[in-house]
Automatic annotation (TrEMBL):
Keyword Transmembrane helix: no
Active site (catalytic residues): H67 (proton acceptor)
GO BP: any one term: response to oxidative stress
Protein name (database record): Peroxidase
Region (Disordered): 147-167
Annotated positions binding Ca(2+) 1: D68, V71, G73, D75, S77, E89
Listed cofactors: heme b; Ca(2+)
Binding-site residues, heme b: H194
Annotated cofactor note: Binds 1 heme b (iron(II)-protoporphyrin IX) group per subunit. Binds 2 calcium ions per subunit.
UniProt record similarity statement: Belongs to the peroxidase family. Classical plant (class III) peroxidase subfamily.
Any one Pfam family match given in the protein's UniProt record, by short name: peroxidase
Binding residue positions for Ca(2+) 2: T195, D239, T242, D247
Amino acid sequence: MGFLFAARGCVAAAALLCVILPCHAKLSTRFYARTCPNVEAIVRSVMAPAVAAEPRMGASIIRLFFHDCFVNGCDASILLDDTPTFTGEKNAGANVNSVRGYEVIDAIKARVEASCKATVSCADIVALAARDAVNLLRGPTWNVPLGRKDSRTATQSAANANLPGPGSSAASLVSAFAAKGLSAREMTALSGAHTVGRARCLFFRGRIYGETNINATFAAARRRTCPQAGGDGNLAPFDDRTPDAFDNAYYTNLVARRGLLHSDQELFNGGPQDALVRKYSGNGKIFAGDFAKAMVKMGGLMPAAGTPTEVRLNCRKVN
């Protein structure tokens, strides 16, 4: 008992030190083995009923992780509410009315704090929740390296500059991921997260009314709930065959020219990614393995050296 108290004290002191000095400790799957050994079970205990009640929430948590890591690293900056001193990421163009699930992360954090006070970062909670979201939707699982810290600031401009949009070309996607140290293969695998979830009519209207590299029957079906004027918020599944199953159907759809977003279909449009899309379409195990490895690599993106960090007690605000 005394050792556990001392260990937690060390973690708190380390978190405070990270506010002053840049912290880039190597992540470890056993980071909380002594200080919060039940953290993964706690995360799962909240994620399982949340996804069971609304499978779309699983896709939303995966998206939350992506959009956090792509802006200044995996530092939970996306969770920060705006303050008088900064405008955060929640209302950036790619996030507003698109990223959700904040209340699920809040629920996990509350339960983790009750068990292991001031120990587990919000960034690590998001990473674990994203892994569980994939698995709860019948996708792969993997060991999540832990030990991230939470940023003490966020910038809307950084989110607007770093997050790819639904109209992105294949070349711009390759470039955006390369800027984060992720290969074209990893980009193509990570895009497979669109095998689950929904998109708003606003983001695919241009494709279903103005593009030719699209299955006519698919386009007609999407137009029924996405008129040329109005209905911007109407939702459609990325994969209308198995919308809540984390499988390789995303790639099968691309080969059939049934990609929902322009950026989706760009991965199978006569370019270098075509061969890999065909491979994933024909072999779900290869896709699942590549996706898991790419998620671990993306989860290793860290804030820039010198960024003030801490373990937040409330994921929405700094301590």
